[in-house]
Amino acid sequence: MSLLIKDESPEKLIGEDGKRLDGRDLNELRSIKMEVGVIPNADGSAYIEWGGNKIYAAVYGPREVHPRHDARPDRGILRTFYRMTTYSVSERKRPAPGRREKEISLVIKNAIEPVLFLELYPDSAVEVYIEVISADGGTRCACTTVAILALVDAGIPMRGLITAVAAGKVDGKLIIDCSGDEDKSGEADLPCAITWYNNQISLLQFDGIMDLEEFDRSLDLIMEALEKIHKLQEEALKKRYIDVRNNLKNYKPEVVPTSNIEEKIDLNNQKNQNGGDQTE
Amino acid sequence: MTNNTKNGEYASIGQRLGVVEEYLPDKNSTYADKGVIYATRSGAIHIDSHKKKISVKEPDESKRQKMKIGDIVIGIINFVRKYSVGVKIYIINNNVKFFSGNLGNVHVSQISRNYVEKIEDAFQKTDILRAKVSKLNYNEVDLVTDQPNLGVISADCSRCGGPLYLIKRDLLKCEICENIEKRKLANDYGSVKTRLII
Amino acid sequence: MSLSKILVSTERKYILNNLKRDKRIDGRDLYQYRDIKIDNNIVKAAEGSAEVHLGKTCVITGVKYELGPPFPDMPDKGVYTVMAELIPMSWGAFEGGPPDERAIELARLIDRPIRSAKTIQNDMLCLIPNKLVYIIFIDVYSINYSGNLIDSGAISALTALVSSKIPTAKIVDKEKAEFEWDGGYFNTKKLLKNLPISVTFGKIDDVVFVDPNLTEELVMDGRITYAFDDDGNLVSLQKGGLATFSIDEIKSLARKAKELGDKLRKDLDLWQYQNLKNK
What is the ipTM of this complex? Predict the structure, then answer.
């Protein structure tokens, strides 16, 4: 099928002034905004706006495994579903998940699973649904970064956070956090995720051409950027904690004059929650 | 290492909380590695000074579906065995949990304060049951229904599937086939008013 | 599903008793909508997009186009389709995989008023009869399902259409079907004629109320959806669920739906989301 406005890749991705097309320096990240607890139905959820990327992540579980034979008696299983909406990319994507989406789902799962204490949830599944509403390069890194926030919000115990970012090479220069255009016409792309509890790399892919010295330098660039994003993640989580706590403080159970037993149970529970720290 | 861990303070994930010589780490919210305790959740630090136990509490623990002793659950009876019934739990403390996969068991001795001779006199398959958690097992919980507000809150006729209405305590009659059935009923059978959080 | 059986046995009576006293569990009146919040132009790559919050319900709709052959029976008309996905992210009971009957019913319910009211002037979307027309995709995704996806989905589809920037083309060679972008975009005020508003009622026992929330939707017997166009004509009607309605009820609800729809149309003022850069 054909479109009227063709995606034309610009000839030069780095201007005369040494800045990139969107005005960023070579080692500058796009603006990143994160929010935790955005989907009320989910056990945990998060939203990220990373440049032109807009991504929701929701966690359901631990819950029953379907089909049953996938369940493991010794530990819980993690499932990740990376999906893109049909309108998230310039040419309409087919609604059914493609090979790319399945691969990225697996890559993200493998990046996240090492930090989770899934052995606490035998016979159950933790399911992470990631929906890319708008895509603009580096979605797998943004998805990993937001998925871990949703897992924290869902109360799944973990050793530490995970942060991901991609480095790349355009016009012979190393850059951090490739945008969609840079991704398409760049010379190399290196997405990378770190597990902060032991500073190990848990997601690593590379495509393109680089010499080893450039490779070393791009890893340094990545480390520098990861620290910044990690701070934003921590802030988003702390904000969520404060919000929920304030909501709870302001929450007054509505007292309905009725002799119904169930209502009484309600109120008792509420009391336990608010003063739960002392009564255990 | 100075000890800056205080009760009620915010802990981020992976934050060092102390050493195992000081506290007993809580397995659901902390972990110990080489003698050092780290947080595995973000939330408020909670130190139980009697038990010397350290844990991290989320601001709203009621959302989590982990059951505690004393929780009120609602479920549907899946199996009727010789001495117990199996319950599939859908609602924990008024929080609706889809596919939670939580299973519970009510032993015949825990059904009622009165003597129950046959389990069929108290429960049938597909009855909807309100019960209280009395014991946590590996992947199941033990439930009791020996209080007036606990027991069957909705049941269908075991012969024709029609709705059953209350005729007197623990006795039901089918609207369609007039079959009379015995159950251990909750005292609000037929007039349940809950407000679930979905 | 066992869960809905439990919900009906525990919640229904409580909700019904309150409804009989003209009260909803969330404090609304029987004929009151939840708060509606609309955002548009949220997706850069889409021609049009809209995020609609109806209470806790959230849907995001995108509009995309392609150029391709028309349907043989309408050789000089553009094509448009509505797709709805109830993604598992939006509710614990939704499953992944191809759209199930629920998602398809929703898509068709959103599609029908647009089609009946002839909202999209599809003769404007034809480039070369029999050969080349615009194919417009309206894809609705549920982000958080908390009841009444029909009305929120319909509003989001219309908003996405109104705010869309679909490029216009000029024909270079009619025989070879060569074309190129002429640098402009469709003016949606001309491309769209009529914005039909859907109004959905739920029914429990003999009580009818508008805009069911999630709990109400799970325990209610059925629903009825009316859609009216700008001129006040009925353009779509569908009864769903197991409930039955009397003739008088259907007639009086139609009046009520028209009243509510007119109010919604005025309050939302969907034309304000038109992209002003359009020519």
Answer: 0.92
